Amino acid sequence: MLITPGKLLAKIDKPEDLRNLDQTALPQVCAELRQFIVDNVSVYGGHFGASLGVVELTVALHYVFNTPDDQLVWDVGHQAYGHKILTGRRDNFHTNRFYKGLSGFPKRKESPYDAFGVGHSSTSISAALGMAVASQLQNNPKRHHIAVIGDGAMTAGLAFEGMNHAGSTEADLLIILNDNCMSIDPNVGALREYLTDITTSPTYNKVKDEVWNLLGKMSNFGKSAQDIVSKIETGLKASLLKQSNLFESLHLRYFGPIDGHDIDHLVSVMNDLKDIPGPKLLHCLTVKGKGYGPAEKDQTKWHAPGLFDKVTGEIKKKVYDTPQPPKYQDVFGHTLVELAEVNEKIVGVTPAMPSGSSMNIMMKAIPDRAFDVGIAEQHAVTFSAGMATQGQVVFCNIYSTFMQRAYDQVIHDVCIQELPVIFCLDRAGFAGADGPTHHGAYDLAFMRCVPNMIVSSPMNEQELRNLMFTAQSGTIQEGKQAFTIRYPRGEGVMPNWKTPLEPIEIGKGRKIRDGREVAILTIGPIGNYAVTACNLLENEHIQPAHYDMRFVKPLDEAMLHEIFQRYDKVLTVEDGCLMGGFGSAVLEFMTDHGYVARVKRLGIPDAIIEHGEQIDLHRECGFDPQGIANAVRELIYTERAVTA
Ligand SMILES: Cc1ncc(C[n+]2csc(CCOP(=O)(O)OP(=O)(O)O)c2C)c(N)n1
């Protein structure tokens, strides 16, 4: 379905075309841009509310600044649809997030206007500062550098590290704080309270208005007048706010808060700020989902709603005749409450993903024992470690990809101190349409090499429940080892998933089927593909054995001895990186014990795999059911050819 842009938008192939318009045309551009986003996302899916909320900011930024020479860095990048549409990708926008199509996030390879690749939050200030300092070193004082960061992303330590550094430089850096009071779920923490205070303080706002009026009047009078204004402004702010402005105290000049939907005001303020040297922050107030009623009302649901009817606002859900398997995240959420109702020591921790991880189920059921700590993965892990020192049984749920942020905390704060924190890594394996920034490709490799760490992955909902049950049990909690349970995005395989809870012996796999010639060893839900592959091969009278290993660490050594004694052809399958992952662990076992076998490993190669449906990516990497069947055939027929 072709989406037709409005009249003005149709003529904007690059920001220069926008800059050639009269400022009076900008409200119309904003309206058309907003409509184009609604039209596209309703039909093709993607992130939604965040882009609607920054339509005016986006238009103003490209109107005022000389992009792409001026460097514009979006934080997270899920709000950059308007930016993509204005920067040469309008006619291709229907491919957004599709296999081989546009990326859902800014990406350097995709466009010169995407100054920095993103997906994970809170990198924009550091990146833009790096660019600003490089411009100084390269004697390019005219270039501007802008970081657009949300109030949610601002809660991460990395954002503060960036500001702390920026405040000690003279770099030309403009930080735009896009404050909509939301993360994916409502934003949390003291910073949010602070931003609300600053926004509503009558004294502060009076001073601010006076300063802005003065600045507006004086900015026509050239550089020295502006210097005077800036001194007055700093003096006023400092005395009236008693140095209490957080950003000012980090030596960032603070401006705002202003209405982030008033395009004329945004343009004039940004024009003024262009002439103010050094690091500065403009606080803009916006509404997530602005301009689309249902999205303004339920901002969490409309963060990424899926396909919807744009007229009625009804979100389209597939309807099935039979009961469907639940999402793994929901099995996690419900099982956690079930366990926590019995074991009072259990607590839950999530860094800003209550709905994404289904921790919100526990936050609702047992609010005082479930914590959303903001976008702060490092803190989430160390906070969990702290609680574990006091005997709490902590389920710390972090998306596999975001756990990369907290690796030092896993080693230094948890494993070295022998603390039995339970890490539930959601979205392990390919994340799908979110792409390489979000793929959970590395966790098996980076978790298994840390001492005092158990690493497991369930093949289905029942195993997830049983692993969670096992991890919180007294024996494990006294065992001084952390416990990783990784599972993928999306649905499992068991419509009747509420099975009785049973312990699983640590390091014990299970044989799914006996076979001949080849043994397939799998870890986690990808094992279900192996089941399908075995069924396909059955028609060709090929009967591989299949083992669901369940643990990558410790490996089921008894089972591996049995396998290497019986089979000289072994296939390992994992939805994680091949280097250092599950297959590597099996190879290590093989050489350590002197076995000789032909081992083929399927998994994610040493390459950046782009976005697409999970099944497309599995196919690309050769571990969809057909790929697994092919690998078995290859093992068998190569061997037969050699021996013939
Ligand atoms: C390191 C990291 N943790 C978690 C996420 C998941 N995430 C994506 S957007 C988002 C909320 C961002 O909130 P904010 O910066 O305020 O932007 P808004 O969506 O409100 O515009 C979160 C938590 C992420 N992208 N990166």
Distance between the termini: 55 Å
Mean pLDDT: 94
Tell me the total number of β-strands.
19
Q: Largest sheet at a glance?
A: 7 strands, mixed
Given the structure, what is the number of helices? 27
What percentage of residues falls in helices of 4 or more residues?
40-55%
Strand ordering within the main sheet: 9-8-10-11-13-12-17
What are its keywords?
alpha/beta; 42% helix; globular; EC 2.2.1.7; binds thiamine diphosphate
Describe the fold and architecture.
By secondary structure, this protein is α/β, with parallel strands linked by helices. It contains 27 helices and 19 strands. The strands form four sheets. The protein has a seven-stranded mixed β-sheet with strand order 9-8-10-11-13-12-17, with helices on both faces. A five-stranded parallel β-sheet has the order 1-2-3-5-4, sandwiched between helices. It has a five-stranded mixed β-sheet with strand order 14-16-15-18-19, with helices on both faces. Helix 2 crosses helix 4, helix 4 (55-64) crosses helix 12 and helix 23 packs across helix 27 (625-643). The chain is globular. It binds thiamine diphosphate. Thiamine diphosphate binds at residues 50, 53, 76, 78-79, 120-121, 150-153, 178, 180, 182-184, 288, 352, 375, 377, 402, 405.
Present the secondary structure layout.
Blueprint: H1 15-19, H2 26-44, H3 49-53, H4 55-64, E1 71-74, H5 81-89, H6 124-137, E2 145-150, H7 157-166, E3 173-179, H8 190-200, H9 202-218, H10 222-240, H11 246-249, E4 253-259, H12 263-274, E5 280-285, H13 293-297, E6 308-309, E7 314-315, H14 328-342, E8 346-350, H15 354-357, H16 360-365, E9 370-372, H17 377-389, E10 393-399, H18 400-403, H19 407-415, E11 422-426, H20 443-448, E12 453-456, H21 461-471, H22 474-478, E13 482-486, E14 510-513, E15 518-522, H23 527-538, E16 545-548, E17 551-553, H24 557-566, E18 569-577, H25 582-592, E19 598-604, H26 614-620, H27 625-643
Parallel strand pairs: 1-2, 2-3, 3-5, 4-5, 8-9, 8-10, 10-11, 11-13, 12-13, 15-16, 15-18, 18-19
Antiparallel strand pairs: 6-7, 12-17, 14-16
Thiamine diphosphate is lined by residues 50, 53, 76, 78-79, 120-121, 150-153, 178, 180, 182-184, 288, 352, 375, 377, 402, 405.
